[in-house]
Design goal:
Helix content is about 30%, strand content about 5%. The longest helix is centred in the first third of the chain and has 10 residues. Helix 1 packs across helix 2. By secondary structure, the protein is mainly alpha-helical.
Length: about 120
């Protein structure tokens, strides 16, 4: 658990703006939580406070109250970003021109095994 001052310091280090313990108390008021500047904040309370931040921060309540700060970086690469060219349209590898949309031979109206013999 951490106190409101440490919570504010950690929020400030992850780029959520410059936070003070008074800002954390105000955030708690917005979240309908009663805290004071010297109250200990656990992971559950931290998550409730983080859920009221806008824009959202890239950590969870458990990460921000963990004894190891800042949280360790993942060794996995981040997922590639997706760009939107118009509402509802996604540009991606499947939208390459010149490719047939079907996979396999062109199909007629009949299944291959249903032909009459002797033709």
């Amino acid at each position: 658990m951490i106190n409101a001052q440490e919570f504010a310091r950690r929020l400030s280090t992850i780029g959520a703006g410059a936070f003070t313990s008074d800002d954390v108390v105000d955030l708690a008021t917005d979240a309908d939580v009663r805290i004071s500047a010297d109250l200990e904040i656990d992971a559950t309370l931290a998550q409730r406070l983080l859920d009221h931040l806008s824009p959202k921060v890239p950590v969870t309540g458990a990460q921000i109250t963990a004894s190891q700060w800042p949280p360790p970086q993942s060794s996995r690469p981040a997922a590639p970003s997706v760009s939107f060219s118009s509402p509802g349209a996604v540009d991606g590898p499947a939208d390459q021109p010149g490719r047939s949309r079907g996979s396999g031979p062109a199909r007629g109206g009949r299944r291959p095994g249903s032909r009459k013999a002797g033709r």
